[in-house]
């Protein structure tokens, strides 16, 4: 069977991720112009319900299927692979169906007592239809990722975003004039459409893959053993992500309410929340396409190496991934710290510069944490991740509840920064203790930091004095391109990243057993 290196697979996912994020970003800009800040706030208010349903139905199983498929393929136990996938699909689709029926009939209760905004009823009922398709499709994506066959999941990503955009484009003119309630509903219809089309595509792709590669053998595990292995990993993972989704939903519900205690009206509070969660945060996470793809491919790569006892391979994988995370995080910080006001005005025509500046300070921690999650999942430390998640959320919620009424939305961002510092410190200690990796702060943070500062200050000076006054928004975009060109040049000149280093990492082949 054809194999790919971990980085090759990550690059395929990254290409799809970049396309998806560009499409998604265009979609968000379009929606923010149509709905305004308050409408975006209403839309963001119900999205944690979508995340919660995904967490309950299939989040743990996505990682479990990927991890188990990788370790069973390394041992050539193809029969076990099929059994694990079949059981996972049955469990997740059943849970998704129960969640779908429950939310549909309890939408009014949720709108009145959870979200405290009756305008969410229609959107919640429509959203419920997506859950069974989402659950089953997620497991099959995990199967392909476990085999490190990333092309199908990559195409699936782009297909999902494309379907969502096309659906909203054709329906927006009919729904949006009816008010925010229906405008929010049409955005959710796009989600349902993307999940149905994604489900169809991923299962057709699976059937074609199975018929082509004939990965068939007699299972060495009984159905009970397979189920026990699945649930033993899925339960803590699901508990972690469900608690994370519940706590995230609680944060999203509390922020507008506590902002009103700060002295804002309901509309003002929802507008601030919309600018933060619907505009500033998507910009901050936009550059993480490579890191997200790396985190996904790290899980099967580490699991496979762990099953074969290849610790040196794990250390290399983790070291190079953290190097890329450090470079990406510091580079993103330079962008959002040097051009916060310009980015808000160029993309949204909204004053979100103060939010982008503060969030930019968090980028190194946010980006490194993406890699930490993949490493710890690959090493089987799901319970540890669960504990970290609870600690982080507790810090966030305490800051929202007690400090936001006194200091406004900046108190939330300060609490988020504190939680990131605490969680990253605990995660890096756990990784060092588990695989004895050496921490290279000079190449991971110090040299990239100096390179980012030099590139950012230079680009900022040229933008303020030459490009923006002469070319407006195009001058800003040119300055941003200059920043990244200078940053990349300084990274190479300081020896942080070299040709041999990249080549060795990209050409490393995964073990086949």
Give the strand content: under 5%
Low-confidence stretches: 508-513
* Number of E-type strands: 0
Rounded to an integer in angstroms, the radius of gyration calculated over CA atoms is 23 Å
Our measurement of the CA-to-CA distance between the termini, rounded to an integer number of angstroms, reads: 13 Å
Commentary on this structure:
With 513 residues, this protein is mainly alpha-helical. It has one domain. Helix content is 86%, strand content 0%. It contains 18 helices and no strands. It has helices spanning 6-74, 78-105, 107-114, 121-128, 131-146, 151-175, 180-213, 223-261, 266-285, 289-307, 311-338, 340-347, 353-378, 382-407, 409-435, 441-471, 473-493, 499-506. α1 crosses α9, α6 (151-175) runs antiparallel to α7 and α16 runs antiparallel to α17 (473-493). The model is unreliable at 508-513 (pLDDT under 50).
Short description:
With 513 residues, this protein is mostly helical. 86% of the residues lie in helices and 0% in strands.
SSE layout and pairing:
Layout: H1 6-74, H2 78-105, H3 107-114, H4 121-128, H5 131-146, H6 151-175, H7 180-213, H8 223-261, H9 266-285, H10 289-307, H11 311-338, H12 340-347, H13 353-378, H14 382-407, H15 409-435, H16 441-471, H17 473-493, H18 499-506
Helix pairs in contact: 1-2, 1-5, 1-6, 1-7, 1-8, 1-9, 1-10, 2-4, 2-5, 2-8, 3-4, 4-7, 5-7, 6-7, 8-9, 8-14, 9-13, 10-11, 10-13, 11-13, 11-16, 11-17, 12-13, 13-15, 14-15, 16-17
Task: Please tag this protein with its features.
single chain; 513 residues; mainly alpha; 18 helices; disordered C terminus
């Amino acid at each position: 069977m054809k194999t790919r290196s971990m980085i090759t697979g990550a690059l395929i996912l990254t290409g799809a991720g970049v396309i998806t994020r560009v499409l998604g970003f265009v979609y968000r800009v379009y929606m923010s112009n149509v709905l305004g800040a308050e409408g975006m706030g209403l839309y963001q208010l119900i999205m944690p319900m979508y995340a919660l349903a995904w967490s309950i139905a299939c989040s743990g199983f996505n990682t479990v299927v990927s991890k188990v498929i990788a370790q069973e393929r390394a041992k050539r136990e193809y029969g076990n692979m099929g059994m694990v996938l079949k059981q996972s699909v049955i469990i997740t689709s059943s849970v998704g169906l129960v969640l779908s029926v429950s939310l549909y009939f309890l939408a009014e209760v949720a709108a009145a007592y959870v979200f405290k905004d009756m305008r969410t009823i229609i959107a919640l009922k429509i959203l419920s239809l997506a859950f069974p398709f989402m659950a089953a499709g997620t497991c099959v994506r995990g199967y392909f990722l476990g085999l490190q066959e990333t092309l199908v999941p990559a195409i699936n990503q782009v297909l999902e975003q494309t379907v969502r955009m096309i659906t909203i484009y054709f329906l927006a003119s009919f729904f949006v004039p009816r008010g925010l309630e229906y405008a929010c509903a049409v955005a959710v219809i796009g989600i349902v459409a993307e999940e149905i089309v994604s489900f169809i595509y991923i299962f057709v792709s699976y059937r074609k893959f199975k018929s082509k590669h004939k990965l068939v053998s007699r299972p060495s595990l009984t159905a009970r053993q397979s189920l026990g292995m699945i649930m033993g990993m899925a339960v803590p993972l699901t508990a972690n992500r469900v608690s994370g989704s519940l706590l995230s939903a609680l944060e999203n519900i509390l922020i507008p309410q506590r902002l009103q205690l700060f002295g804002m009206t309901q509309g003002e509070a929802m507008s601030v929340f919309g600018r933060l969660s619907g505009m500033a945060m998507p910009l901050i996470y936009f550059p993480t396409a490579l890191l997200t793809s790396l985190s996904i491919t790290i899980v099967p790569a580490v699991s496979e190496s762990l099953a074969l006892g290849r610790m040196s391979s794990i250390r290399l994988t983790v070291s190079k991934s953290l190097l890329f995370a450090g470079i990406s995080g510091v580079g993103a910080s330079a962008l959002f710290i040097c051009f916060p006001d310009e980015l808000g005005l160029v993309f949204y025509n909204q004053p979100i510069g103060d939010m982008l500046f503060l969030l930019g300070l968090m980028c190194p921690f946010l980006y490194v944490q993406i890699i930490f999650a993949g490493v710890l999942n690959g090493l089987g430390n799901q319970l540890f991740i669960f504990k970290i998640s609870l600690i982080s959320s507790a810090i966030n919620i305490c800051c929202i509840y007690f400090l936001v009424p006194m200091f406004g939305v900046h108190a939330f961002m300060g609490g988020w920064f504190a939680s990131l510092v605490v969680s990253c410190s605990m995660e890096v200690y756990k990784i060092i203790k588990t695989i004895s990796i050496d921490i290279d702060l000079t190449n991971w943070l110090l040299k990239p930091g100096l390179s980012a500062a030099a590139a950012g200050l230079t680009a900022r000076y040229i933008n303020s004095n030459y490009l923006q006054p002469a070319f407006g928004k195009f001058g800003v975009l040119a300055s941003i391109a200059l920043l990244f060109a200078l940053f990349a040049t300084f990274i190479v000149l300081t020896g942080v990243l070299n040709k041999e280093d990249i080549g060795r990492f990209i050409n490393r082949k995964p073990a086949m057993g």
